[in-house]
Structure formats: C-alpha cells, structure tokens
Amino acid sequence: MVNDNGFSTSFGAFTLSRWSRTNTPSEQNLQAWDAADELLLEHLAQVSLPESARVLILNDQSGALVTTLAAAKAPGCSVQFATDSYLSTQAAQKNVTANGGDVTQVTWLNSLDRAQGSIDVLLIKLPKNLSLLEDQLYRYRDQLNPHTKIIAAGMVKHMAAGVFKLFEDILGATKTSLAKKKARLIFCELDKTQWLPAPDLNTHYVLENTNYQITNYPNVFSRESLDIGTRFFLQHFPKKMQVEKIADIGCGNGILGLVATGKYPEATVDFYDESYMAVACAEQNFTRAWPDRMASFRTDDGMSNALPDSYQLIVCNPPFHQHNVVGDFVALQMFRDAKSALQQGGEFWLVGNRHLPYKDHIKHLFGNSMVVASNQKFVVLKAIKR
Ligand SMILES: C[S@@+](CC[C@H](N)C(=O)[O-])C[C@H]1O[C@@H](n2cnc3c(N)ncnc32)[C@H](O)[C@@H]1O
C-alpha cells in the first residue's frame, strides 16, 4: 500500500509514494524523494536532454527520477532503471503507472544485469554503500562514451568520504556543484586513457566452525566478516525439531539458511531478501556448499509472497532500517509475515539487539515468546505459532 504526495518539478507535477506495507503513520508520512532528486531534475531541465537520449538511472529509491522522465515522456528518450532493491522496483513501477507513464517503455534491470546498448546520460542517486557504487561504476563504464553526461546526486550527509575519488579513479575527471537544500551534484567526464582493470569486488571468507566458503557481493550485509549478532544466533541455533520446510527471511549472504540446511538433512530451505545481490549471493553460497540439495531463492518484501501455513521453522536476523530510514517497522512486518507463513506449531527464531523491544513485539503477535539465550548485546528469541 502506498500513500500520495505531490512532487513538483520543471518537467511537471507528479504524485509519488514510497513502497510500504506497514501502514504505520511514521513510515507512511515519509517523503518518496529528497532534495537531491529535485536538484538533479532541475539541472536536467536546464541543460535539456540530448535528442533521443538513452538514459540509465541507478538507485532511484522510490522512482522519482524514472517517473518524471517516463511520465513527462521526454521526447525520444529511452530509459533504463537499475537497482539492487526489490522495494525500489515496486515503488518505481507503481509511481510510473500512477502518473500516466507506461512501465513497458522502461527497461527494468536489477543490480546484477548489464545495461542495454550505449548510454548517453547516466543518472546516479548515490547509494549508502560505496562498494555498491564502485561495482556500478565498473559494471556500466564500458557502455559510456566521452560524450555521456554522467551526473550523480546525493544528500551531503549521506555522501561517504571517498565518493569523489571513486569517480575519479574509475571514470575520470570529477567536479561537484554547490550544495542546495543540503544536496549536491557530482559531474564526471569519462577518460578511458587512465582506466585500471576492474578488481574482484566480492569478499570471501570461510564460515567459522564449518567448511562453508562464503562469498559476499558488494551490497551484502556484513560483507567483510561474520556479523556478531549472526554469530551469537549460530551458537544457539534451533535443533532437534521435525522440520521439512525452513525459511531464512532477510537472508543476506544466506549464512543462517546454510547452517539450517546442514542441521536438518531432510528439510528444504527458502531464502528471502529484498536485495537482488543478497539473493544471488545466498544462491551461490548454497550451491557451493550443498550442490545436491534443493532450495529456493526469492526476492521479496519480507515474505509477502509466501504461502500461508507452509513452514515449520523460520529464522531471521532482522534489519533495523529500510534504505536510509531507521526504524523497527521492517522487522515488525517480517514478524507478521513469519507468523502467517508458519504452520501451526511452527517456530520463529530470531536474533536482535537486546535494547530493541522485539520480545514484546513477538509476544504481542504470537501470544508467546521465549528468551533462548542472551548476552550483553544480543538476545535470541523464539515464538511458536499456536
Ligand atoms: C541484518 S541483515 C541479516 C543478513 C543475514 N541474515 C545475516 O544474519 O547475516 C538483514 C537483511 O534483511 C534484508 N532486508 C531489508 N529489508 C527487507 C525487506 N523489506 N524484505 C526482505 N529483506 C529485507 C537486508 O537486505 C539484509 O540482507
């Protein structure tokens, strides 16, 4: 469900909404664009797009940019949209349609796809994660040319140190605009003469106490080493139940589901995440560890597309933010999804920071909650669907 908001640009006025299933006022009232979107569109209107421009848009969180270009029917433009976020794709497609644009006229790509053809205009909303940006600059640079307009936009407070150097090192000369409403643009000119070959941006480690090789794609949670919350969960992992179907919700690199696969030889595991890289990475890690076992890998918002009453065990290390927005609304939605997807008698196990009120939330939802283990930082909780 989405709410409505007026977004006024030099290309016209639009109605934009974030993707949300939670219906909480705090989340519903969040704006679906920021001053960096406004600044970028203002700049584009001033320079005017080249005739029949082939535009590639990256990391457009709720689709403010793609909606504007698709709905304003920029003459002759072809637009490609690439993101690592399933939620962003959902929001953008809704917003394009709601504003009279034609979703079939946009090429929808995920973060692992290559773009199609050569690119005249590359518009980048700066992601929080510099490794993702680095991956994107290397991934698409072959499709740019010295005339490609390369423009990135971000809020100053989210611009990581090192962002300018990445553009300089990977693409070419880089300069910035003055800040306006705490947003800034970055302009870059392609210079192929200085190019270094793309390095391997994935990280790799062996999961402690196992022989599982873990590969982490650039936008995956805790990509340098095992998260300490995940480690605590693994020390107190559920065992000794009759289990045929397990879900790992918010799977990241898939470690929880991987360990579950080892502990339950009769079970199949379904891995869910909203990040395309996470799901692909979980699949790679699973297939390497268990070439003969079955599993499924699903990009989804929580488990919104799971069949009700279908799992005996669901494990989760919930996120405490959705993109740049911090809050427990995502975790709560996952808890509701988990309850719906569990069979009667099925168990939901999670790890969380002990200062977060997850125990109360799951008690309220399931009618029961148990502390399996706790230390100074974390708590492992379990609830049973009655
Ligand atoms: C704290 S990480 C846990 C990753 C992994 N399970 C682990 O323990 O290392 C939370 C994960 O939730 C995912 N996530 C965030 N919002 C989501 C949503 N709405 N639906 C599904 N997954 C989401 C993130 O992409 C991230 O991989």
Automatic annotation (TrEMBL):
<dbReference type="InterPro" id="IPR017237">
    <property type="entry name" value="RLMG"/>
</dbReference>
<feature type="domain" description="Methyltransferase small">
    <location>
        <begin position="212"/>
        <end position="382"/>
    </location>
</feature>
<keyword id="KW-0963">Cytoplasm</keyword>
<dbReference type="InterPro" id="IPR058679">
    <property type="entry name" value="RlmG_N"/>
</dbReference>
<dbReference type="InterPro" id="IPR046977">
    <property type="entry name" value="RsmC/RlmG"/>
</dbReference>
<protein>
    <submittedName>
        <fullName>Methyltransferase</fullName>
    </submittedName>
</protein>
<keyword id="KW-0489">Methyltransferase</keyword>
<keyword id="KW-0698">rRNA processing</keyword>
<dbReference type="InterPro" id="IPR002052">
    <property type="entry name" value="DNA_methylase_N6_adenine_CS"/>
</dbReference>
<feature type="domain" description="RlmG N-terminal">
    <location>
        <begin position="7"/>
        <end position="191"/>
    </location>
</feature>
<dbReference type="InterPro" id="IPR029063">
    <property type="entry name" value="SAM-dependent_MTases_sf"/>
</dbReference>
<dbReference type="GO" id="GO:0008168">
    <property type="term" value="F:methyltransferase activity"/>
</dbReference>
<dbReference type="Pfam" id="PF05175">
    <property type="entry name" value="MTS"/>
</dbReference>
<keyword id="KW-0949">S-adenosyl-L-methionine</keyword>
<dbReference type="GO" id="GO:0032259">
    <property type="term" value="P:methylation"/>
</dbReference>
<keyword id="KW-0808">Transferase</keyword>
<dbReference type="InterPro" id="IPR007848">
    <property type="entry name" value="Small_mtfrase_dom"/>
</dbReference>
<dbReference type="Pfam" id="PF26049">
    <property type="entry name" value="RLMG_N"/>
</dbReference>
